[in-house]
Amino acid sequence: GENVEQHPSTLSVQEGDSAVIKCTYSDSASNYFPWYKQELGKRPQLIIDIRSNVGEKKDQRIAVTLNKTAKHFSLHITETQPEDSAVYFCAATSRGSGAGSYQLTFGKGTKLSVIP
Amino acid sequence: SQTIHQWPATLVQPVGSPLSLECTVEGTSNPNLYWYRQAAGRGLQLLFYSVGIGQISSEVPQNLSASRPQDRQFILSSKKLLLSDSGFYLCAWSPLRGQRSQQYQETQYFGPGTRLLVL
Q1: Which residues of chain A carry a pLDDT beneath 70?
Q2: Shortest Cα distance from B86 to chain A (angstroms)?
Q3: Is the dihedral of CA A114, A23, B98, A62 positive or negative?
Q4: Which among A102, A105, A108, A110 is the top mutation candidate for probing chain B, defined by the most B β-carbons within 10 Å of its own β-carbon?
Q5: Is A103 close to B49, i.e. CB distance below 8 A?
């Protein structure tokens, strides 16, 4: 099955600096890679995703890059703000056992702290 | 638009007691449904997923079970809770293949969660 490794587990940056979180995956058939942000005590929220036919995607201060050959993808947050502080999870698609079923295999998360 | 509900929001149960957590989705049909557990400060562990009524796949063998009695209802149960069952239980849904373009079928949207404390 799919295995997703996420680094670092914790990350502290000064407000205004950039933050980068990296993930690697094992299944070359995976073709969908979402990133979720989870604030303390709340549900994970999808913040950006990327398909395997695209190398990079941007949404304001957030960008995701994908290297299919190396099987790794990264989240980039520029001009970080205190409200960016949260746990971030990467994930990769894997095929379920039932027809039409897909699962997401999650990384273990990165706790990002933005210091004012 | 689609909405996902979970209840109860919080629950404190003694060891050995039964459990029933409910998840319902509105505004869509034939969704894939998922149950995850998140221990304090940890990642997301997939427990069960379902592609249709009565179709349940288990990812982790344990004292929990799941059922899908209706298209948009997913229930997580236990006959006897263990201390290790404490955690944050999240239900999620995703569009079923063929319902939307393949581009979006794997996106999962999470419910607000149920925080369970077993004492």
Answers
A1: 95-101
A2: 14
A3: positive
A4: A102
A5: yes
